[in-house]
Each structure stands twice: as C-alpha cells, then as structure tokens.
Give the backbone structure.
Amino acid sequence: MRLLDLPQARYFCSPPPAVFAIVTPQSLRDYHNSLAKGVVRMREGNLPFQIHQISLLVSIERWLLFSTSHYRRAMDMLVPASAPWAQVTLYYASFFAANAILGMFGGWVGQTQDGIRVVDVEHPAPGDQELRIYRRLSSPNGAAGSHRIFWDFFYDSVASIAAWSPPELASALSPVNGNFAWQIAERNNVNYDMHDAWTASKLFHGTFKASRLKSLSGPLQLQFEASERLIKLALRFATDVSLSTTALEGCGQVGASSHVRKRLGAQRAPQLITQSAFQEF
C-alpha cells in the first residue's frame, strides 16, 4: 500500500472549505460498496475523490475520539474482574488510532461486498492527487480475518512514513513483539477463553499497585504501552497535518476538535448502579 509523505498528507487533509460545503460525509464501507468492481481511480477535483476524501477525514476525527476515549475508559476497568476487558478496550484504542494514521496519509483498508478493498496513492503531488481503490485477494502476509488483514497492511505500509515520526514514538509503527497479529491474538485469548481471562485477572491481582500505573504486567502491560504509543503518534500526526473537520458536532460540545475530544473522552460516567438490578455492586 502506497502512502503520502507528510507534506502531501498535510495537503490532502486540508481541502478547501467549498469541498466540505458540497459533500455530505457517508459510510466509507457503503460508499465503496457502491463503486464499480475492479480498479477505480479517483482524481482530485472530481466528486468521487471528494466524497471519499471528506468521508475519510471525518472518520479520522472520530477514530481519534474513540481511540482516546477507549484508552481513558480502560483506566476505569483496572480491577481484577475487568482487567481482561481493559485489555480488549485498549486493543480497540490501538485499532482506531492505527486507522486514523493510515487515513491521514491517504490509506484505507476495509471489507466490502467483494472482499478486501484497499485505497492507496496513485499520484501524490498536491494539486494533482489521485487515489486508487482496488480489490485484494489477500494481505501482504496472507492473513485471514478482517483485523489480521488490517494490521498486516498497516505494518507493511507505515514503514514509508516512519521518517516523519518522532524518534520516541517510532516503535508504534512496528509490530508488537515482532508479530503483526500479536494484539489480535492476545485480545482473543482474554475475550474468548475463560481460562486465559482468569489467568490474566490473577496476574493483575498479584502484581498491580493502584498507586503505580507502570506496575501493569504481562500482555496487559504490552497492550497498554502499544496503545499509548499509537494514540500519541496519531494525535501528533493530526497536529502535523492540521486536521480540522466538523466531524465531532452533535454530541453537545463545541470548540476545537482537540478540546471536544478531551471533554467527551474525559466525561464523568453517570452513577447508575443504584438504578440497576444489582445494586449491591
């Protein structure tokens, strides 16, 4: 998958206001399902390019919101009985951040009606950008399953943008434990195997100190570190490309996207347990 470089991404992520005015964002998957099968090329200035561009930029803003919010909510689950789900939640924080990074540099991977659809860059030059949408029979390493396919493409492509990453965050663009599917495998272990979930809870109980977040251990610790690096990098790139859309309107907040993201993500959860069927909890 070919991506933009940072100056080209900055141009792609800052379309003229007139483009935002004429395009209604829509589901990327539904939009791609509506396109012809085979290779489709979308050229800057044409409506198909603009629909994809605006819909992708809006999705990026929302991926960033859900990424930071999932990270924040995982902190509330750091007790033995929900520590495995904290790991699952951190996984999705990582997944959303990675989608945002790909999108800012012109890439997209998804499952549509005709299989794996990939969007990459055909012509990167500002003023004459062109994207290519095409069907792939397999991912670079022949992965199976939508999430494995995504991470396979992600790690295979982001090497080209590593030079634009701050040195302290560069490891976010390399597979955890050297395995592109590590995050998925560990998520599945604690999500679908009760033996593994209970083992994770016991490890958490025996090692975690509430006064020190760095006392996390095992796969939960690695997932936490991986998610944190990816989120930091995604937010850094969003600043670098001057990402700005109206994607976060509608949830009762106004202002800069970064401020809305922070307010929504840090919003205090309602205390509703006394209204539930299990008030003793």
Notes: The chain has one domain: 6-242. Residues 6-242 form one domain. The radius of gyration is 20 Å.
